[in-house]
Structure formats: structure tokens, C-alpha cells
Amino acid sequence: MTELLEPRxxxxxxxxxxxxxxxxxxxxxxxxxxxxxxxxxxxVQATVARGRVTAIDTAAAEALDGVLAVVTVFTAERLASxxxxxxxxxxxxxxxxxxxxxxxxxxxxxxxxxEAADLVEVxxxxxxxxxxxxxxxxxxxxxxxxxxxxxxxxxxxxxxxAMATAHATVDHTYSTATYHNNPLEPHATTALWDxxxxxxxxxxxxxxxxxxxxxxxxxxxxxxxDHVQVVAPHVGGGFGSKGTPHVNVVLAAMAARVLPGRAxxxxxxxxxxxxxxxxxxxxxxxxxxxxxAEGRLSAIAIDVVEQTSKVKEFAEQTGVPTRMMYASPNRxxxxxxxxxxxxxxxxxxxxxxxxxMFGPEVALDELAHDLGIDPVELRIxxxxxxxxxxxxxxxxxxxxxxxxxxxxxFGWTGxxxxxxxxxxxxxxxxxxxxxxxxxxxxxxxxxxLIRFEAGRYAVEIGAADIGTGTWTTLPQIAADALDVPVxxxxxxxxxxxxxxxxxxxxxxxxxxxxSAVVEAARAFRGEYGTDPADxxxxxxxxxxxxxxxxxxxxxxxxxxxxxxxxxxxxxxxxPRHLGVFAAGRIVNPRTARSQFVGAxxxxxxxxxxxxSLLDPRSGHVVNHDLAEYHISVNADVGDLQAHWxxxxxxxxxxxxxxxxxxxxxxxxxxxxxxxxxxxxxxxVRDLPITLDALLPSLP
Amino acid sequence: MKPFDYARxxxxxxxxRVATLPGAVFLGGGxxxxxxxxxxxxxxxxxxxxxxxTSREVTDTEDGGLRAxxxxxxxxxxxxxxxxxxxxxxxxxxxxxxxxxxxxxATTGGNPLQRTRCVYFxxxxxxxxxxxxxxxxxxxxxxxxNHAVLGASQACIATHPSDMAVALAALDACVQVLGPxxxxxxxxxxxxxxxxxxxxxxxxxxxxxLITAMGLPPLPAARTSAYRKVRDRASYAFxxxxxxxxxxxxxxxxxxxxxxxxxxxxxxWRATRAEQALRGGPATPDAFAxxxxxxxxxxxxxxxxxxxxxxxxxxxxxxxxxxxxxLTAAQEG
Lengths: 699, 333
Ligand SMILES: Cc1cc2nc3c(=O)[nH]c(=O)nc-3n(C[C@H](O)[C@H](O)[C@H](O)COP(=O)(O)OP(=O)(O)OC[C@H]3O[C@@H](n4cnc5c(N)ncnc54)[C@H](O)[C@@H]3O)c2cc1C
Description:
The complex is a heterodimer.
Chain A: H1 19-24, E1 39-45, E2 51-57, H2 59-63, E3 67-72, E4 94-95, E5 101-107, H3 110-119, E6 121-126, E7 145-146, E8 150-151, E9 154-156, H4 159-165, E10 168-176, E11 188-193, E12 201-205, H5 210-221, E13 228-231, H6 247-258, E14 264-267, H7 270-276, E15 283-291, E16 297-309, E17 330-340, H8 353-356, H9 359-371, H10 375-381, E18 394-396, H11 399-410, E19 423-424, E20 427-439, E21 447-453, E22 456-460, H12 470-482, E23 489-492, H13 509-528, E24 537-541, E25 552-566, E26 572-582, H14 589-608, E27 614-615, E28 620-621, E29 637-644, H15 668-680, H16 691-694
Parallel strand pairs in A: 1-14, 12-13, 16-17, 18-25, 22-23, 26-29
Antiparallel strand pairs in A: 1-5, 2-4, 2-6, 3-5, 7-8, 9-17, 10-15, 11-12, 11-14, 15-16, 19-20, 20-25, 21-22, 21-24, 25-26, 27-28
Helix pairs in contact in A: 9-15, 12-13, 14-15
Chain B: E1 5-7, H1 12-18, E2 24-27, H2 33-39, E3 46-49, E4 58-60, E5 66-69, H3 74-79, H4 81-86, H5 88-95, H6 100-105, H7 164-170, E6 174-179, E7 182-187, E8 210-216, E9 225-230, E10 241-250, E11 253-262, E12 269-270, H8 272-278, H9 285-295, H10 312-332
Helix pairs in contact in B: 5-7, 8-9, 9-10
């Protein structure tokens, strides 16, 4: 148990410290980094999905006025490490997926660079490719682990036997689509090598973590850590796609090395973000649930089929939430992968929990209906006393309270359970519920420095603000840890000049950096007392030994949705969407609300709109821009509310925070699907839910 | 992006003269053309900016109609009181399109000439007969959810994306054109072509022909008209299908009806068969459904890796029935 900080600044809805600069456009993003006479880089991408580059004719490109250099798979420098095949930029003539980078152009302007990239002529020896995910493939394989290190399969008891003898069962296959993270700010880098050629590299990069990014870049380029500086004061979103550097960062560094002393700018186009910056695998989820007449589960199982790129394995942990969510004596979770000739998939907001809380949460809704039990009540009846997977007690678990409070706020009580019977004007109306969950994580590596400077406290840590609010929330934690007003704290983040910080990922950022800041503050006070001298400083890391290992730590939530379906056309609208979360201490309600409602909207988007359409003939996503890849827009979002319980968890960290960036997306799509069923009587098990699935059953 | 020359001629005559050469294109609001320049879909040698040359006014015509200059923006046309009163279907169609920012820029001349949103047309790395004649149609057998069910060919199954154009087709608008050989007027329903074996040509306009204005004929019945656009997302999405309808009903009998369909064909689809079936008949849901069936008798849905577009046939029927039902109710109470 840690000593919880007393919240004074924490809990206040302070406005964003970087807000004014952002609104005025003066906050500098990676691509905008001021540079003298920057050169611009454009990429040449493979137009076949598999094969080998046999020749590249760069003459026309090089002849273009303003072109500074053309680099290809045949001419590129050899990288120090090609262990991570995704990052082995321009190291091989083999093409492993359509859109793979086979060359780059440097030019005086971005227009010239792009035109020259178009003029580069690439000849291929094209090979047949394989890009189709199907559950009935005979070459599905069992990965050793699923992201980031979970068991691939788990089994307890005998699911088949329980299914055979249960009072009620649900046995269906659900699927989620391919999703692309699509942060507003594209992946962009300004790269500069020291002109002296002594191997110092600066990367102004749009990244979720300057230190993790530097570590990777150093490994790929074979540089010592102190030769590389990564700077990222402001990041326009990442949703996981900037959690690890993708090939664009390596390419920017390679391009800049061609012109030492001159900054090189490389921003991916929106289309390129669909092949070079990660995405979420589609999932096929076979879900089985068995229960007695009272709705108590006797079995729950999820068998997941999903894909990975042949370039690099990424096994999304889709089955993991089923391991701990509800009580059940019999349980099975499995993951099988198809390795395809496709770009590398990776983290996207709540990897695992996001897709994994779709199938099972819809299955529970089906079970509730079959049993005539309210779906809120059904979930409450299956509340496990301890973590079913580990047997550990919960650090805190308030799912039931979230369900109850959500039901109360939403007006759930008295809901008519029958589907397809409510009509208001031209609308069929229904409501649905689903649970949310996200594990509470803390990373091992973070250090904060606190220095007393001219009467104020400077806090330095290489943390990231990817729009989440770190610039504002970290000072709140520091202020409480130092017991000073928040205005007396200045925080410096987003630069490897500052002490090491972990990635803004897994909703662990504030948990980790905040813990480091609290440690540093406590050590600072221990050393210098409350009246330090100017220049007194203290640098301390998170105390991993003090990390509680005896409890299962998760944030929980419940989401309620009202769906309306146009009785003429089947168009689906969601006028009400309400979430209640138990996610530990909320450091700043203003920035927290924006995380919750942002993630809930992303879940709505996943339910109704997002769908990367892979054309298996070409092996690429054909709707690769924001006009065709639809995300929910303002008009799709009605009365959207996020609430939270005042939860105090002494086990997670000194702030009592659980992390809030991802939980809102989990369960949201299931709640929408359940509401659409309640409105229409049509059970759609494949995302996205679009009107064509409803049309045949409309009145 | 391929470099091009940019010209801003002094008047429309000069604009037409310089645009006679192949490789020249007109620039309206640029909301479609500029995207295509960046994507490499359009590779002109010369861009002739006509935004300030054509009229930006909506004027009454002697016969009681309206005339909208080609430079009138979509926002301005939608907000014009005369349009809203006399041709609500047009105002509604305009407002159902794109977003406020785009409508503030998009023009009356440019909107009907925007090109298909077929993803393969917009992706220069895939074959497309419309973009590069003779290379084949990638949409056939690909993703077809947004593609045509009427009037498509083996060469192209693209749809025309404009909402405004669907309303103009229903209203029997006419297009005023200035070309190298002088002025001509093209009935709006004849402006766009079916793909046939040359989908590279969207319209009957010849190289160098400039749209100077759009004429709206007097049509009292159009005061009861409506545009219904169906889409997955509530805004900022092209129509899956749409219906523009003008309906004049008295005592339960259809006196006059004009219908055009969007999202179903290479052109805004004037539903003449349905109109014929309805004229003089009862204004009932059954009659509306029968008329829709008549119009869709030749519909050929496309299979597709995304599930195809077979849903468009029932969707058009349902949307048409609903639109006519609501227009009937508006008149007959
Ligand atoms: C994200 C997005 C969403 C959109 N959503 C919708 C929607 O929902 N519904 C909808 O209807 N539209 C939608 N649009 C399209 C928009 O309406 C068109 O881009 C716009 O109307 C085109 O008008 P413009 O003046 O900008 O044309 P431009 O881009 O300037 O030109 C389009 C074409 O017309 C030619 N041209 C322009 N003016 C003339 C003239 N006077 N004479 C002859 N040729 C001319 C050009 O050479 C070019 O070929 C959307 C666009 C975007 C980018």
C-alpha cells in the first residue's frame, strides 16, 4: 500500500497550460520546427504486394530541378540493426507488402519531392500474395505470446461439458473490422545531423515517447544514446500509432544523413498512414457462454482468429479481458494468427480490450435476453470476488457501482426488454449497455528531476503530451507532492534532454511519470526540507520495488447507449451515450472528460463507421483517406456524457490514478450493437453495423 | 504533383480561348480539382481560373425561373430565398452536401462537374478506365458498396457523387455553356453521360466548354419538393442513395411528379419510368412502391468484397416511397 497524496491541486479542472498556444497556432509540432532552408523528403512506395524490386530508374527524378538526392533499396546506407524488420528501411529489394518504401527523394520543396517520387520508375518481379484473413484458413498458427507478453491460450475447467449441460447457452461468431489509428497530426519528423559529421542527430518527432523512440533509433542506426536527441513538445494524437517509431522516423534520419547540417522534413501523407504507421488487426471472435437459469455463468470462452504481418509479428491480446471480467468456473481463451503479406499491425487505443470487449459483451446481451434477465443485472450476478485469472484480490473493482449509477443516470430502470417494439415518429428506438475495462499499468522506467529555481519548482521529465493534458496534470501532481500551489510548479517535458520517461501508452503515462515526480518530490523534501536553496535539485526514479504485486488492478466502467434507427432507411443514429467509470483518482476533470468522451466517440465510430477496406486483389486498403474512411463526426454525437466515481485505490500508486486514456473505447461498440438490436430486433455481430444489415427486417 | 501553368484571363471569352488546348482545365472553387492535382488524378498543363469571371449572382428570369451564375457558391445558392421557396429540393440537396467550409467555396459550375468518389479512380496505383482508358475497372469485383446499380457498363460502375446535381436533374434545369464555337444550352439531364465504353468522359462538354450559368425553369409544383439523402454517417458523407422529388397531388391523384435518384448511376438518374407510372394515378404507398419497382426493373447490383451494393435496390425503393409519402402528406395533410 502506498501513502496516497492528499489532493489539493489534483482534482481541479485546471485549463490546459498549452491551450492558448495551441489555439493561437504557436505550439510547434514536429513538422513545423523552424529550420533554415529545410530539405523535403518524399517516399517511393511499392505498388505490388509481394515480390522483388529488380530495377529502379531514378534518372527522370534526378533530372528534375530542385531534386537533391534519390535513395533506393539499392543505394541506401546499411543500417546497424535490421532485427526489427519493420524498421529495416530500404535494406532489401524484397517487397513484403504493398506500400512498402522502396526509395526516397530529397528536394528543395515538398512539391518537387513528391513529383520526383512519382517519376522514380520501379520494376518488380511480382509474386502472388496472400492477404485474406479467414477463420477457416488451414495455416493459422499459435503465437508464443500475445501482446505484450500474455499467455496465448488459457483454459480452466471444461467449457464443452458446461455448454452441453447448461440451462442456456450463446454460441456465435463476432467480428471487428480493420481500423487505422488516424491521429489528426500525421506521423512527421524534422531530422538534423550535426554538420561536423560527428554523428549527432536531432529528431523533432511526433511521438508518444521521446526516450523509447530514441532507444529504438539508436539501435537501428547503431548510435550511442547521447548522440541522439528526440524532441516532441506537442503531439497531435497518436492512439498508439506513435507509441513505437515506425519506418518513417528511420527514413527521416537516413534522408537527413545524406545532407548533414541541413534539416530534412518528412511527413507521411494520410494515404501513407494506412500502410506505414500501424493499424488494428481485424478480429474474428468465436464466443461461447453458458449459464444457469439465474444467469450465473458456468462457462465463458473466446477463440480469436486475427492477423499479423509476415514482416513482424503482432498478436493482439483480444481474448485477455475474458480471462478476468466475470466469474465462471469454466473458461477458455485462445488466439490464432494468420500471417499475411500486409503492413505491420500494432497498438491502437486499448489493444486487446477494445476488440475483446465487443464479442463477449454482445454475447452477454444475447444471454440476458434468452434468460429474460436485465442485462445490467446479468453482469452484476457474475461479479467475481477475486480476479478469476490470478486469484488475487482486486486493488479496487467498482463495476457494479458503475452499472448501477449509469443505469440511474441514463434512466434504465423500467426498460422494456422486448426488441423492435418502440417507435417514435419515424424512428425505431432502443437502448443497450456494456461493461468497460482496462488494466492499470505502470512502466518500470521513469525518472523525474526537481530543481528549485528562482522561487519556483522546475520539474523535468521526458514525458509526452499527446493531447492528453500532461502539461497541465503533471504540475498538479508535483504541486501536491511538494505541497505548494500549482502555479509554483513549472514542468518541462517532451525532450530527451530531461530524465528518462516511459511511453504514453497503455494508459500508463500519468501513473508512471506521476509516480516518478512524487518520488522525486518526497526525496527533495527529505533532502532539503521545505525551505530549499536556489539550485537545489533531486533526481529520482519510480520505485519499481514498491509496486504492488498482490492485487489485480483494473479500471472499470459501464456504457449506456440509446440508438435510433430510421424506419424507412435503416440509418442508425445515437442520440444518447453515457459512461460511468471507476478509474481511480481523476487528476483533472477537464482533461479527463476529454479522454473519456474522446474514447467513447472512437468506440461509437468503431460501431458504426470505421472500416478499413482491404482489397485482397491488390493487398491494400483502398479507402485510405478521411473522405472514404469514415470516423464519426459531430453530427453523429448527441448527448455524450462521461461520469466517474470517486474511487480511492491505495494499491496502484501514490496518486491513486488508474489511467483513463483507453477505457472509454472498450465496450462502447458492444453497447451500440446491443442498442441497435433492442431498437430493431436485428442482432448484428459484425462491425461496423450499417443500414444494409437492418434493411431486410425493417417494418 | 505535376507542375502546371496557371492563367487568370480577363473575361470568359478569353478563358474559353486559352482552354481550347488539350491539357487545359477550368478551376472553380477547387475543392475537387485541387485534390485531384495533389493525388495525380488530374495532370493538366494549364489551369484556367474562372472563379472571378463568371457571374456570382442569382437572377430572376422573365419566364419566372431563376438563373444562377457559375460562380455562385453552394452556400449562397442554398441560402437564396427564392431558391428556398420555389425550389426547396435544391436548397436541401445543397445543404446535404459536404460541409459548411466546402460549400462556401464550391461553385455552381464546379459542383455538377465534380468527379466520382470511386476509390480506385482516386488511387493512381490501381487500374481505372475513367482515369486511364483501357486499363480496366478495378471496382468490378472490388469494393462496390458506393457503386452503380443502374446504367453501368463493363468498363465502369462508378456513381456520380453530387447532391446538387440530383436536384437539378429533377427540376429540369438547363446548363448554359460557352465554348470555342459560341454559346449553347444543354438540358441538365443530358449533361452527364452513362459510362458505356468511354467512361473517361463524365459529361457531353467538349474541351474548352465553360459552364456560365445554371437555369431553373419555372415550376410551381417544385414548391412541394424534397431531397432525401441516405448515408451511414450523419454528415460529411456522400449519399449511399438519394431521392430528389417534386410532387403535385390533388385529391389523392398525382398531377405532376419529377424524380431523380442519386448514388445509383454514373449520372444523376432521372426516374422517368417511375414518373410515368405515377402521373395521373393514386398517391399511395403501393403506387409509389410499384413506380420504384418499374424504375429499378433493370437494376444490376454489383457483388463486391465489401458485401456489394444489392442493398441499394430496396433502399432506393424505401427512400422513394418515404419521400413521396411525406410530400403527399405535406399537401394533403
Ligand atoms: C471531403 C469532401 C466531402 C464532400 N461531400 C460532398 C457531398 O456530400 N455531396 C456533394 O454533392 N459534394 C460533396 N463534396 C464535393 C463538393 O461538392 C465538390 O468538390 C464541389 O461542389 C466542386 O465545386 P468546385 O467549384 O470546388 O469545383 P472545382 O474543384 O473547381 O472543379 C470541379 C470540376 O469542374 C470543372 N469546372 C469548374 N468550374 C467550371 C465551369 N464553370 N465550367 C466548366 N468546368 C468547370 C473543373 O475543371 C473540375 O473538373 C465533397 C467534397 C469533399 C472534399
